[in-house]
Design brief:
The complex is a heterodimer. Helices cover about 50% and strands about 15% of the residues of chain A. Chain A contains 17 helices and twelve strands. In chain A, the strands form three sheets. Chain A has a five-stranded antiparallel β-sheet with strand order 1-2-4-5-3, with helices on both faces. A five-stranded antiparallel β-sheet of chain A has the order 6-7-9-10-8, sandwiched between helices. Chain A has a two-stranded antiparallel sheet with strand order 11-12. In chain A, helix 10 packs across helix 15. The relative contact order of chain A is 0.09. By secondary structure, chain B is of the alpha/beta class. Chain B is about 30% helix and about 35% strand. Chain B has eleven helices and 14 strands. In chain B, helix 4 crosses helix 7. The longest helix of chain B is centred in the C-terminal third of the chain and has 26 residues, at about 295-320. The chains are: A alpha+beta, B alpha/beta. The interface of A and B includes residues 298 and 416 of A.
Chain lengths: ~475, ~375
């Protein structure tokens, strides 16, 4: 160990030399040369000056050990190797070397860029908490801890990505969440051999049981209350740094159609709202295929009152019904996509241009029939009632193959499509758990969680679908024991 | 394996598409007899790009109904589609001479045609009914006739009119079908009478008020209206004025329960028909004393007596036509053990059959005000 300490600093400097914002500040202090290394874009300069530089100046006697114990900063660490120090510096820490000492010191004076907490955008609610997660994992964990104060809350840290390591936290409640599920998640995360993961949605895809299906298998949410609710019911959450959405798993098909609002509203309302949503989604998948099938093959089933209306509007259209339907569906998709890409101010005019001008013109020009415009608009609306954006997109895509089947074989084709879809859904799993639960395998007690809502007293057990270790939530009889004033 | 099934499905070819606007949609058809040939007219609906749609009657003559169909195809640029056919009208003459079963049978065999198609008899013939230009606000005569019959079935003044019911009664031993009979008034088709059949042959008609009793005896009767005329003497204690001939009473919200039992089998079948009727009085042709618990019986007895008389008249008429739409034969067949009744046997027995009628009317309300 004869080589000079200056060389060690040079090693670090060499590693970070390609960053123009890398600074190596050398200060003389009590006859010793102290080097302070940092990336100037990442740090809080006020911290650096007041708590690091000024502090070093004030010291009588200076050594790494002494600094490590006295620096007025929370996170201080002693580094053995240059690589370790370089990686800390890249994270926004400042490295300190003292001449003739073997080890270095790193202090956390990082200032991360972060936006303020905002209202949830993609999962907007009328009732209930509005706050949404942000891109910083530390803030997100903080929000979660505020939501769940249970001492059994576990936030396990894992790192994935070789080139660009990413901080991932697996959160669950230790005595509720099923241990097999937790093991599966941790194992899958540990076995990921990948250079980088950009976002939680990508991680969700990497964790998928089935890569070739169009159905999302993990729920992504930006709502802290939704995560808290899911955790307390025995599910597992995965936080990913730099991502405002949290993965919830295992997920069932029906969790994509529920919102936290369903829980906040009274049970009658939310039951009706869920039914409306389900109906809308069902209509969204099957209305246009039904139109194609009926107009192409089964004119017998049209009620006599509608026969003329449909017939007259169809008689102007020169294309077969399937082309007409595909054309209009494509137009709606185009509008939606354009609306999503455009800045909000222009987006509004897009709606008017697309909805009114194009729709009316298409009918006038004899490209489509009036009836189909209504049907396509309805099914587009229906698909947007899906609270999950991913599921909404799935439903929009799903209708195209069914339209084609309807064009090939009419109603028989639709039923072939439905059968194939059902078979597929029955085979799907999320984290190894059945996707269609509680409908298949049938769990009557869980229907109240998935399809309908009941008064609160029926929710004394956690959903069996999540296989909670401890399924008892409360005893309704005890909860409702009230003492009157005169007792 | 999975892909093989998909390929098989894809390669098996497509069904012939029948795109709606390419179809000439037949909403009604009428059949008549012309010598040895059938003469048929179909109401074809074609959609118009501008203005309202039009319907048109196309006609053809051939030996079979499917032959007619081919001749009709030659007369239009559309593919004729019978999937929306709502009503088939048979000419009175055709029904009387030939019977309509061969023609209904082909409807039944056609998968495109539902078994809830209405059948009717056209008077004087089907062609004039089908070609009538008066069809109210409906786009074509087929829809008009369909709605006309549907409405009257719902208000329960008609007994049965669907293809299914016709075929069912036709094949049933001891029961004969009935169909609505369309006749023209000022060139507009209306339902005035009900056509009676023996087997599939038209034998005669009864008025709608008579068909009320057929319906009442053949099945349960709910809702509906009945006008009954009783003689003055019967209700004398209730009347204020002493002069005049008859009193008309209109009953509403009629609910009946009927029970027909075979009392004895020999020498001739003897049935007891019990009808229990609950109703309310809607209208009376003359001012009466207030009807109370004490004197409502007078009115009830009077109605019972009149009804019994009318039912007996009707049964005599049915016997004269040798038709049994009420299904006494069925009851006979069910009640007698080890019997394989044939239509022929029943026809003989029916002639001598005796029916005792017992009507039991109870008036629940005398108008909704009380």
């Amino acid at each position: 160990m004869w080589f000079s300490k200056k060389n060690r600093v040079d090693e670090v400097v060499k590693q970070l030399a390609h960053s123009p914002d890398f600074m190596c500040r050398r200060i003389e202090c009590k006859g010793k040369a102290v080097s302070v290394l940092f990336l100037s874009n990442l740090i809080n300069h006020a911290h650096l000056q007041q708590n690091v530089l000024a502090f070093i100046h004030e010291q009588e006697h200076i050594s790494i050990e002494q600094l490590a114990s006295c620096l007025p900063l929370g996170a201080v660490r002693i580094c053995e190797t240059e690589q370790e120090m370089a990686s800390y510096i890249r994270d926004g820490w400042a490295g300190i070397y003292i001449e003739k000492e073997k080890r270095g010191l790193v202090v956390n004076i990082a200032e991360k860029v972060e936006r303020s907490l905002e209202k949830a955008e993609t999962e907007s609610l009328v009732l209930g908490p509005k706050m949404s997660f942000t891109e910083s994992i530390d803030t997100n964990i903080r929000i979660l801890r505020q939501n769940i104060t249970d001492q059994k809350l576990v936030t396990e840290k894992m790192t994935i990505g070789v080139r660009n390591p990413l901080d991932v936290r697996v959160v669950y409640i230790e005595d509720i969440a099923d241990q097999t599920n937790v093991q599966t998640v941790k194992q899958r995360l540990a076995e990921l051999r990948i250079d980088e993961v950009i976002d939680s949605s990508v991680l969700a895809q990497l964790l998928d049981d089935h890569a070739y299906t169009i159905f999302p298998q993990y729920l992504l949410t930006e709502l802290p209350d939704r995560l808290a609710y899911s955790l307390l019911k025995g599910r597992i959450g995965i936080f990913v740094d730099r991502s405002p959405t949290v993965i919830i798993c295992p997920t069932t098909f029906f969790s994509f159609f529920e919102t936290t609002e369903d829980i906040y509203l009274r049970w009658t309302m939310s039951t009706v709202l869920r039914a409306v949503r389900m109906l809308g989604i069902f209509a969204s998948i099957f209305l246009s295929p039904l139109y194609v099938a009926v107009i192409t093959y089964h004119y017998e089933v049209i009620p006599s009152a509608l026969l003329l209306t449909i017939g007259e509007s169809r008689s102007r259209v020169p294309f077969p019904p399937v082309i007409e339907a595909l054309f209009l569906e494509f137009m709606i998709e185009l509008l939606r996509e354009a609306g999503a890409r455009l800045p909000t101010k222009v987006g509004q005019t897009m709606g008017i241009v697309g909805g009114i001008v194009l729709g009316q013109a298409a009918v006038d020009a004899g490209f489509t029939s009036n009836v189909l415009i209504i049907i396509v608009a309805l099914s587009a609306l229906g698909s947007f009632t899906a609270p999950s954006y991913e599921m909404g997109a799935t439903i929009r895509i799903l209708r195209f193959p069914i339209i084609l089947l309807a064009a090939l074989w009419g109603l028989v084709g639709i039923f072939i499509g439905v059968s194939l879809l059902l078979i597929h859904l029955l085979k799907l799993t999320s984290l190894g758990r059945p996707y269609l639960s509680p409908v298949y395998p049938f769990r009557l007690a869980d229907i109240k969680y998935a399809l309908i809502r009941l008064p609160q007293k029926f929710y004394s057990e956690r959903p069996k679908t999540n296989r909670p270790q401890n399924s008892r939530r409360f005893s309704w009889r005890e909860a409702m024991k009230r003492k009157d004033l005169d007792e | 394996m999975k892909w093989m099934i998909v390929c098989m499905l894809l390669l098996s070819g497509c069904v012939q598409p029948r795109v709606l606007e390419r179809q000439g949609i037949i909403t009604a058809a009428g059949f008549d007899k012309k010598g040895k040939l059938y003469e048929a007219g179909s109401v074809m609906l074609s959609f118009q790009t501008a203005g309202s749609s039009m319907s048109e009657v196309i006609e053809a003559t051939n030996k079979t109904s499917k032959g007619i169909r081919q001749d009709l195809e030659a007369q239009t640029s559309h593919d004729l589609g019978s999937g929306q056919i709502r009503i088939v009208v048979y000419g009175k003459e055709l029904a009387e001479q030939e019977g309509i079963f061969p023609l209904t049978d082909t409807l039944q065999r056609d998968a495109n045609i539902g078994s809830l198609v209405y059948l009717a008899i056209g008077e004087p013939n089907a062609k004039t009914v089908i070609k009538s230009k008066k069809h109210e606000d409906t786009p074509d005569i087929g829809t008009y006739l369909y709605r006309l019959i549907e409405k009257n079935l719902r208000s329960e003044s008609l007994l049965a009119a669907t293809l299914h019911e016709f075929i069912h009664s036709y094949y049933d031993i001891g029961k004969d079908p009935v169909l609505p009979c369309l006749s023209l008034r000022d060139d507009k088709p209306i339902i005035e009478k009900v056509a009676l059949f023996r087997g599939d042959k038209f034998v005669g008609t009864v008025r709608l008020d008579e068909s009320f009793y057929i319906k009442m005896l053949a099945s349960e009767y709910n809702t509906g209206l009945k006008n009954i005329t009783v003689s003055r003497d019967e209700v004398a204690p209730l009347l204020i004025k002493k002069k005049g001939k008859k009193v008309n009473i209109v009953m509403n919200e009629i609910r009946t329960k009927r029970k027909i039992t075979l009392v004895s089998q020999k020498p001739a079948p003897h049935f007891r028909v019990t009808v229990k009727m609950q109703t309310e009085i809607l209208e009376m042709s003359e001012k009466m004393k207030p009807i109370m618990q004490a004197n409502v019986g007078i009115l009830e007895r009077a109605i019972e007596k009149q009804m019994k008389k009318e039912i007996e008249q009707l049964l005599a008429k049915l016997k004269a036509y040798k038709t049994d739409p009420i299904g006494f034969g069925q009851i006979y067949d069910h009640s007698v053990r080890k019997l394989q009744l044939t239509d022929k046997q029943w026809l003989q027995l029916y002639e001598d059959a005796r029916m005792d009628i017992d009507v039991n009317v109870s008036i629940l309300r005398t108008g909704t005000i009380d």
